[in-house]
Amino acid sequence: xxxxxxxxxxxxxxxxxxxxxxxxxxxxxxxxxxxxxxxxxxxxxxxxxxxxxxxxxxxxxxxxxxxxxxxxxxxxxxxxxxxxxxxxxxxxxxxxxxxxxxxxxxxxxxxxxxxxxxxxxxxxxxxxxxxxxxxxxxxxxxxxxxxxxxxxxxxxxxxxx
Amino acid sequence: xxxxxxxxxxxxxxxxxxxxxxxxxxxxxxxxxxxxxxxxxxxxxxxxxxxxxxxxxxxxxxxxxxxxxxxxxxxxxxxxxxxxxxxxxxxxxxxxxxxxxxxxxxxxxxxxxxxxxxxxxxxxxxxxxxxxxxxxxxxxxxxxxxxxxxxxxxxxxxxxxxxxxxxxxxxxxxxxxxxxxxxxxxxxxxxxxxxxxxxxxxxxxxxxxxxxxxxxxxxxxxxxxxxxxxxxxxxxxxxxxxxxxxxxxxxxxxxxxxxxxxxxxxxxxxxxxxxxxxxxxxxxxxxxxxxxxxxxxxxxxxxxxxxxxxxxxxxxxxxxxxxxxxxxxxxxxxxxxxxxxxxxxxxxxxxxxxxxxxxxxxxxxxxxxxxxxxxxxxxxxxxxxxxxxxxxxxxxxxxxxxxxxxxxxxxxxxxxxxxxxxxxxxxxxxxxxxxxxxxxxxxxxxxxxxxxxxxxxxxxxxxxxxxxxxxxxxxxxxxxxxxxxxxxxxxxxxxxxxxxxxxxxxxxxxxxxxxxx
Amino acid sequence: xxxxxxxxxxxxxxxxxxxxxxxxxxxxxxxxxxxxxxxxxxxxxxxxxxxxxxxxxxxxxxxxxxxxxxxxxxxxxxxxxxxxxxxxxxxxxxxxxxxxxxxxxxxxxxxxxxxxxxxxxxxxxxxxxxxxxxxxxxxxxxxxxxxxxxxxxxxxxxxxxxxxxxxxxxxxxxxxxxxxxxxxxxxxxxxxxxxxxxxxxxxxxxxxxxxxxxxxxxxxxxxxxxxxxxxxxxxxxxxxxxxxxxxxxxxxxxxxxxxxxxxxxxxxxxxxxxxxxxxxxxxxxxxxxxxxx
Lengths: 161, 517, 293
Prior knowledge:
Chain A is of the alpha+beta class.
């Protein structure tokens, strides 16, 4: 059927029921249907990482998933991570280190960075670069972003920044 | 909030109470951007908003014989399919020239192509629908009959008599030429002990902002006011130009610049598809949104830096640089960009080559030609990368020819740190530069000698490491006049004046500068 | 950049998916992880009428070792392979290669079946299948069929699969104890498609290679199992022997030229990879003296 399909899923802890066209991807579903515009669209074919969100705990490209694939799934966006306080420390270090300029890549970058910090307590800079390699930033030159992630990791491990 | 001064013991004349000048202050927008609560134009929606998709020419140069949109118009969700002729009733064409670039010429450019498409990617029809997806569906079934015309693609042959002239009314494909001859160049080359020549070839590239160009235009027919939400670096310019070409007063146009997802000079121009979006809103009497997708971005954002530059340097065996000469050629597409033109980059190359060096003997020719490719213009670091690569490439080649270390030849030729104020052969005025101090500091920081010996060692292991040195003068602090020169308007020209800073973060350091004003 | 409209069916079983494919033929596309399919659809390079989503067929997921065979279900995600202790123990080449496949967010969705069925000649997993002498198992209207990895890939995005078939699993022989492997690729950015790459699996006996399978990728229209590698088996490898093999290697490669690299640059990189590979497999750094790319 090219017509709308019913889906029910959890978004940032809220149950959402919707009817979506099969061709609607998750990024557009979040932005256009739910007005969660913190998930950005930079390339729409999986290269830039601006649309990175979490699905069932894993980071994914929301432009490369259809909303209809997410029936029963749990989705977390930058708005959800911000409100829960999960990345408050990471955001504070991003601010202190000025690790963003235009801010368009930032939600996706924070998603990817938090994903790494959850998996590996104290990643070295090489590992940080590798994990963020799928997220483009056109403003900062990345240095300050790597610094911020490294500093957050050290702080979480109980070291001084 | 913390405000820190580098040296709290000493107050400068700018250190008045409550002054923010020179202080590091927090950026107020960071929380919003980090929480995903920014507001970019691509995020915005208005009631009754239509989405426009542009059908773009697949040919570099073609006559448009007929456009049949009847099937597309019947597609559910399609609001309108508009052609160049339809839109011409609402918006007038423009010519991208400025008065300070003497002799620069260009042809009238329309918001949508009329009769002829002049580059692959020029918009020939606008499809407005209630979603971007439906507009794309409809664009696939608009049928355009084209008659392909001979295209001028190679800048090197654009001026040949046998090449077709893209705009007959202009007589030829030469948009702009500047010649500069300072000092005694012929005599200096004659006195040189070595003369080295090289061709420097630069490919087209573009700024690739992470948020593509985005505009939402909202014409209210009852109020006769146009509100333009646009990710732009120059909102006042947009206001003035939109009013001018839509035949409105400036006071009827309001431009709102929300968060901007990167600009780098890409969003300081007025693009035809953006003009078409303003005009569509007026024509259709409803809000119209255009957001370029990534492919459109690559194909229609201005390209830059496509130059072929012949360079020549004369040198003595003791390392004295006697003269520089360049012959720079650049192809800018079929139109000079509006309103800042596409001649600035080549002009800047001519201004900057040889800049850091003592010689007063400098000759330059810069030619800017039309071709059937996407429009080319300037973005970040206008002309500097070309000028620096050519100058420093020539200095390196000269050093190699006379067997001198590349640092040593620079030491012998850089303008002395005590020579200021002075001017370059092209007339740029320099104040308090410090090439020698900078070079000395750099040599220490990088441990130049150590790196050279490591390089030699690695070479024996078949590892080829390069060590590059470049001197460089960046044009800084030229003031707002730099952007307003020659008739490019950066503020309301209708008599009113107010100092309102309304641009948002568009690039590196922009936010910092704003926070410090 | 929005996909064309299509119909969507969530398959309830392999049989159900095959029925749908039988009805729609090449107007249908199987959706697994979607990390190659959806970009192509967003760009409207393809516009299928029907998407058959096999994402909920859990029987196609997972890694099982049975005797001397490792069976990997088609829906096993890249990240699952990367974390699998069984894969690390029995097919470490795959563990190493998978880290070069795209980026974490893509590896969380992309599947081995999807990658192999997509058959991008610059991607890592097809070459690994060839190097590891995998058997690819497809299910179709006439039951299952088994296809050797080296015969599965036909060209750019072309495989032995018919539009009515689904790739359901791959089987890898567990390599003998004295096996060694090598993986390396050149790419502009970590995770990008390779400009040139090599996946190799070998058996070492004493100071010699008793078996050597070198699968080069991004160097032709499909992974290339180098015939030139034969001349390195069962002989004492000297720089001269290696150089002869390199010369033979570039003769059998037909690399494309694109905006990333010329054909001759790709040939050069293939030689560099071969030297690095042989040096690493035999732990003989002396064979890689000219190894800068």
